[in-house]
Amino acid sequence: MSDTYSRRLALLSQPEALAQLKHCLHGIERESLRVERNGRLALTPHPAALGSALTHGSITTDYSEALLEFITEPHPDSAQTLAELDDIHRFTVANLDQEVLWSPSMPGHLPKEELIPIGEYGTSNVGLLKHVYRKGLAVRYGKTMQCIAGIHYNFSIPDAIWTVLKDAENDQRSAIDYQSARYIALIRNFRRYSWLLMYLFGASPAIDISFLRGREHQLEVFDEDTLYLPYATSLRMSDLGYQSKAQAGLTPCYNELSSYTDSLRCAVSTPYPPYQEIGSKKDGEWLQINTNILQIENEYYSTMRPKRITLEGEHPVDALTARGIQYVEARCIDINPFLPLGIDLPQARFLDTFLLFCALQDSPLLSDTECPAATANFLSVVSQGRKPNLQLDRLGEQVSMREWGLELVEQMQACAQLLDNSYATTEHSEALQLQVEKLNNPDLTPSAQVLASMREQQCSFSQFALKQSLQHAQALKTPALESSKVAHYQELAKQSLHAQEQIEQQPQCSFDEFMDDFLAGVN
Fold this sequence. Notes:
Blueprint: H1 3-12, H2 15-21, E1 25-36, E2 59-61, E3 67-71, H3 78-94, E4 99-101, H4 125-141, E5 151-156, H5 159-168, H6 175-193, H7 195-201, E6 206-208, E7 220-223, E8 226-228, H8 245-248, H9 257-267, H10 273-278, E9 281-282, E10 285-286, E11 304-307, H11 316-323, E12 327-333, H12 345-360, H13 370-384, E13 391-394, E14 397-400, H14 401-423, H15 427-440, H16 446-457, H17 461-475, H18 483-505, H19 511-522
């Protein structure tokens, strides 16, 4: 254990700091496709009973009209976050009629590309902008890739904790600059160690054959409808999932916030020739927001993002530049198809421990060799993480993934104890022990369990996923959501529909004029 890490742990073990630590905030965004009860993608509009996808704060859509996204408030206890996520699920399931939520991250059998519906957000200029952005994703990456679902885990450390650390380290930077630098340091460590999350929680070792649309691949045949890799943990996070040639050269440096925001600013204003060939418009119809490497900053696919809540009309990079990093968003979490919510409390407790460890552990700047090695380690684990004696690159040396993983978990024990002391529980330490068991026995990982279930049931990936989806739909109906909570979500839906109506009734310029103003703000 390094001196810096030991010193920070000792500081946060003091009673006043320990009392502040339980004000860390945790939020979850969970995506899930709506499917028919036979597993086929739902081609119906977003259910009106769920409210407006444009203005609802908790229930919206991501890319496809069928890809629901559930967003919790940030809570000081992960148990509260999961309780809210459970409520949202129960309300949604009760209003899906003959449809169910798809249980895993990877889609089942998909219809022809052109039949996959893109999210609709009404007739306002703001709503049309969201739709055009998704049309741009379709022409750039294809609609199939946009049907992948995941979990985004949002995490922040209280300002008071940063103040304790800043004062103890006698750091002369402003509070905002110090906090941003420390969050960037957290992200660097996340880049170093996030391969561990892929091993422990990756749950997408197989895909439906329709996902590839005839593309070349290195996968093996599981059955006539399913492709897989025997040791894969997360094909979702492999180069089969979110891939972009345009973004291949865009690797924002996480050595300081300004280098990150500068690289994103550059990407949203730098033309990309293949996108220029497509054009922004054709026959008067908008095809994409612009022809640059990124249409907007949110298009950048990364395993973690620094975040700051934006003001109305404010771009994310401007918010980060003006007011610093407020929280981080871990974006590489697969949906566990064995869990109704796709995630459970032990996993959340481990993520909290892991993220606190990344924040407190030493985090040297990423060198020109360590950066690509971190990417290579991540990709090795997503494609072959359960391979016996898999070797990773640690500062130029080959090291066993299992041994490195056990070392990291051992180093995290002090963070787990810290959180247990703060929250007066033992759940963080217990969650850590569950991960030790997975490192010692790969058969306990979700990815191994998915393949084992498919073999045991002699079924394809889509058949397995549908069975899980129907089981979860039943589990989320009993017990039914309390009547007061049903009324709450019905009121939120009603308010969101009214809010969209209000936006659409306001006087508006033409969409072309609106886009001129929007693009002037981007460039």
